[in-house]
Amino acid sequence: MSKFSAFARSGHWPTLAASFLYFDFCFAIWVLNGAMGPFISETYGLTPAQKGFMVSVPILAGALMRFPLGVLSQYIGRKNAALVEMGLIVLALGFGYLFVDSYDSVLAMGVLLGIAGASFGVALSLGSGWYPPQYKGLAMGIAGAGNSGTVLAVLFAPPLAQAHGWQTVYGLAALTMLLPMAVMLLAAKEPPDREHQSLREHVACLFEKDGWAFSLIYVITFGGFIGLSSVLPTYFHDQFGVTKIQAGQLTMLATLMGSAVRVLGGWISDRVGGVSTLSGVLVLVALTLAACGFAGGSLPVTTLLFMLCFAALGAGNGALFQLVPLRWPLSTAVAGSMIGEVGALGGGFLPNAMGLSKQYTGSYLAGFLAFTALTLVMLALLRVVQRRWTRTWAEKGGRARVGTPAVAARDALYYPAGIRHVG
Fold first, then answer.
1. Number of domains the chain is built from
2. Does residue 121 lie within any of the structural domains?
3. pLDDT attached to residue 194
4. Residue 101: which residues within 8 A CB-CB, separation 6 or more?
5. pLDDT tens readout for residues 295-324
6. Domain limits at 115?
7. What CATH number corresponds to the domain at position 344?
8. Which are the contacts of 137, defined by CB distance < 8 A and separation ≥ 6?
9. Mean pLDDT computed over 130-152
């Protein structure tokens, strides 16, 4: 309890809470088409490949919008960027309620839902910006637990779609966005870790090897999370013949595990290091994904395996973003947006792979195995790059250490001139 009190006192918890709520509601909107996938597919008689593409469009669009929003946040502030984004989301959902009436317009709506997916880097940087490096992992884990918005989407969207029609859900979702907007406006404060840099300095992480290494690993942890979250309602409905509402409830069980364990992943990484945590996560993801592919005949076994897989993915997301502010202490929003962008692009791979696998082989197995192979490649990459990371800016295992740029930035922000903190 004393450690948690120290954590709470070290930053600004209302901003952290506002960031969590902002990310939570944005995440729910982002995966809305995936949550309503069985309803939309039934309306337009979609093929498996069309289903996979439909749920991947918001993922891909959100990925492409993340980096520009992250750069914008460095100029107008993260709080202001979040408010602008939420206003645009309300307008996008209004379009969905009034004008979506064909498969093509569903795809267009998917692009607009991508606006909500751009929130990632801004939410995490805003929420953790008040906290010193030794608590960054936990702060980012709490803000990042906003991916529990997936739970809201798959829990509430299917019954609402069945009762009122799936287009009406867009209009109802627009009203819900007023809550996080109000909390952000009234409770959040812009963190002090903002540095005025040129555009060239902001985008420098795009040209660094570390940036791409983080991004490729995030293809697995976050790409797997968002990809599976979007495709599972359709998978459960098609593979096991459960109702559309039951498919959403089963998906909720899995995504809830991933969201809850993200905080634990950040907390563990603060203690044993993000690299060590990620190594174990990638092994577990590979094993459970392959097992899910072979367990397609048993609903209970498949559900339990997905819950374990999502728990690993959630912990991996928390672990990776324990490392980001250590590597880029003064441009965390930009670096996080760039990493999140590539990671979310990877999330578009999984729904399409599963849809194509089902359409051309009659089974989802090949799609699962393709992502399993990619996971093992990223594990090998991590084991190679961690040697350099622990020689330059991180302790063994990926813990924060004295003497890194993150520590210098922390000292400048939190302690008087001439006093060096060594905690």
1. 1
2. yes
3. 65
4. 167
5. 988 999 999 999 999 999 999 988 998 898
6. 12-189+200-414
7. 1.20.1250.20
8. 266, 267, 269, 270, 274, 318, 319, 321, 322
9. 84
